[in-house]
Specification:
With 325 residues, the protein is of the alpha/beta class. It is built from 10 helices and 15 strands. The strands form 3 sheets. Strands 3, 4, 5, 6, 7, 14 and 15 form a 7-stranded mixed beta sheet that branches.
């Protein structure tokens, strides 16, 4: 089969297309998926560069968590899927950037009939992460105000959709006109350009009585975290850090005087029960049309290296970056 293989950690050019990789064998609790689309996450690039907190046990490896396709084979202990089922994943055993991948059935989910494979590849990590950040870690409530800092990206768009469906007042930021328009179209109540001078003051002034926001989902904490603390509402304000690319200096007194909180989140810390809960919510909302993935640029498998460059270096991300396989 065709697959992307990484033989050494490094820049995007270590992603090599190999034509004759063996189709994976599966274990009793796994399924084999014929992959038609794979989502590209920032974490994929951190793993590839060797800088992530969790790395592959050995090299070479195939990157990717989010696969979407059709089940080709099921393990002897798998009871909830059959050959021919359309599915998506939040984690794979052998990597999503390939024509076939193996995945433990606990991390495989039915793909609603009203979604394409490309849209299916945008569901796993982005939507599950957005749900976890908002509701499991952020304890979001209807009628609260949430600021989604970086709302036009792969996790930001799902967060806007989920927050609006939950009855929240949503403020989103982006850095390009395309991104700003995309966030508006997802239903955000207010949208600001985070490259525009004075936008933080504008956000503060836009909150009820100027009291600040209840919840912030932060996609780039190394840039925004200290200013996030200034925007929080006293006593109940909290920041959930979803993304970060470096260190940051903060003034803890900003938390002390308002009694606010910072919390980090990562999808891989979810329990089996939390994965099941998140999937149940998403399945219902996707089938009813309350949620709809927004696709960004779609790359052929041969252009994986460029996709890795663009997800990190292209400002103004808009929607999900996807590999078509």
């Amino acid at each position: 089969m065709r697959a992307i293989r990484v033989e050494e950690f490094g820049d995007a050019n270590v992603c090599k297309l190999v034509e004759d990789v063996p189709i994976p064998d599966i274990q009793p609790r796994e399924v084999l998926i014929r992959v038609y689309a794979a989502g590209v996450n920032p974490a994929d690039t951190y793993i590839r560069s060797g800088t992530y907190y969790r790395l592959p046990n050995s090299l070479p490896y195939t990157p990717g968590f989010d696969a979407s396709g059709v089940i080709e084979r099921v393990g002897t202990e798998v009871t909830n899927f059959k050959v021919g089922d359309r599915v998506f994943t939040t984690k794979t055993t052998t990597g999503a950037y390939a024509e076939y991948c193996a995945a433990v059935s606990d991390f495989v989910y039915h793909l609603p009939a009203n979604l394409s494979f490309e849209e299916g590849s945008a569901l796993g990590v982005p939507y599950f992460t957005a749900y976890r950040a908002l509701f499991i870690k952020g304890h979001a409530k209807p009628n609260e105000t949430v600021l989604i800092h970086g709302a036009s990206g792969g996790v930001g768009i799902p967060a806007v959709q989920l927050a609006k469906a939950h009855g929240m007042y949503v403020i989103g930021t982006a850095s390009t006109e395309q991104g700003l328009q995309a966030v508006r179209e997802q239903g955000a109540d207010l949208v600001f350009n985070h490259h525009q001078e004075g936008y933080l003051k504008d956000i503060a002034n836009a909150t009820k009585n100027g009291d600040g926001v209840d919840l912030i989902l932060e996609m780039l904490a190394n840039v925004n975290l200290n200013s996030d603390l200034e925007l929080l509402k006293a006593r109940i304000g909290r920041v959930v850090v979803v993304g970060n690319r470096g260190t940051v200096d903060i003034n803890p007194r900003l938390m002390m005087i308002k009694e606010t909180m910072i919390c980090g989140t990562i999808l891989s810390c979810s329990t089996k029960e939390e994965y099941q809960m998140m999937n149940a919510y998403l399945q219902n909302s996707l089938k009813r049309g309350y949620l709809k993935p927004l696709l960004g640029r779609i790359y052929p498998l041969e252009e994986t290296a460029q996709a890795h460059i663009d997800i990190i270096n292209s400002s103004g991300a808009c929607g999900r970056i996807t590999l078509k396989i």
